[in-house]
Amino acid sequence: MTERVKIGPPHSWLALVIGNSRLHWALVEADRLHTWNTPHLPSDPVSLDPLQIHLTLNDLLNRIEELPIERQSDAGPFPHPDLPSALRSQLPLWIASVVPSQTAFWQAYPQTRLLTLRDIPLREMYPTLGIDRALAVWGIADRFGLPALAIDAGTALTLTGVDPLGNLVGGAILPGLGLQIRSLAHHTAALPAIQPQFIPDLPYWGRTTPDSITSGILHTLIAGLQTFITDWLQTYPNSTVVLTGGDATLLFQYLQHHWQHRFPELLSQVHADENLVFWGMRAIVQQANSSSAEVKA
Ligand SMILES: Nc1ncnc2c1ncn2[C@@H]1O[C@H](COP(=O)(O)OP(=O)(O)OP(=O)(O)O)[C@@H](O)[C@H]1O
Ligand SMILES: CC(C)(CO)[C@@H](O)C(=O)NCCC(=O)O
Ligand SMILES: [K+]
């Protein structure tokens, strides 16, 4: 077997965000991110106690090579074939997980570090706050400063707000776009699981079943986001607001279309960035690396 070329300068590392639908990966090299997604690991082997099954690094790598990889459109020429070589080159793997059953497996890799709420320098967090929410809002803090409102349109749609002093103000959790669609399809006889798509001037009053579902879910989401963002900006007028997560691009398209004439000022304060959680992780990992370098010096 030929040895693959090692990738990345010495300060590269891997980020793994374990969400409720899938795994989000990034190879972090200074200011560059290469991102991709993979499905969750199958549940049975993962639920075994890793101490009992003593997973070696090679087992881990073989498993990764078997996983189907779904590339993000902007992922560049990498990184699917390079993930195993990245791990073989002993890159640190930093994990943030909101799915405990998917976490243990990766901790068998000796270079794994698991981020917890204690690593996030926000104040007034409550103990069950999702680490993905804390990291997303910290990603805004790092890139744009505070105050900040993160809107993560993933499996769940979350809003998470932090004040100018770094105190968590609070937020909201609701079923995400895909979950809303699937719950209608699963719990009714007649409703199909629609593919959400951008429909310019989406009518309120649908005249087909798919149009009615699209209207109901999207118009309600858009109106809800307007209410939440407006309320946030009344208290924190200078806040940056950033949409992230699997449905961020589609939702942002709808917000732009619906708000560009009606609420241009509101719209001007809202951004979209698929990598918010990774930016938050990068800020924390850089901080951790520089303080461990200080300790060594
Ligand atoms: N290729 C894809 N596979 C799965 N979901 C996708 C895909 N492309 C877009 N989505 C959308 O992304 C949403 C899931 O978002 P994301 O992938 O951020 O979830 P997650 O990682 O499980 O998030 P969470 O942090 O909420 O657990 C779904 O509602 C779906 O509509
Ligand atoms: C809300 C989700 C599922 C979003 O991924 C995650 O952040 C989570 O499990 N949060 C825990 C509950 C909370 O944040 O209050
Ligand atoms: K649950």
Describe this structure in words.
- This protein has 297 residues and is an alpha/beta fold.
- The chain has 10 helices and 11 strands.
- A hairpin with a 3-residue loop joins β1 (13-18) and β2.
- α5 packs across α10 (276-296).
- 33% of the residues are buried.
- The model is unreliable at 1-8, 48-57 and 71-80 (pLDDT under 50).
- Residues 19-20, 98, 128-130, 132-133, 154, 156, 158, 173 line the site of pantothenoic acid.
- List the quaternary state of the chains: single chain
Would you report the number of β strands? 11
Largest sheet: 6 strands, mixed
What structural category characterises the helix and strand content? alpha/beta
Bound molecules: adenosine-5'-triphosphate, pantothenoic acid, potassium ion
Tell me the number of helical segments per DSSP (H or I, 4 or more residues long). 10
The percent of residues in helical segments reads 25-40%
Order of helices and strands: EEEHHHEHEEHEEEHHEHHEH
Mean pLDDT: 85
Biggest sheet, spatial arrangement of strands: 4-3-2-1-5-6
The residue ranges in which pLDDT falls below 50 over 5 or more consecutive positions are 1-8, 48-57, 71-80
- What Rg is obtained from the alpha carbons, in whole angstroms? 20 Å
Outline, from the CA principal axes? globular
- As a percent range, the share of strand residues is 15-25%
Separation of the first and last Cα atoms: 40 Å
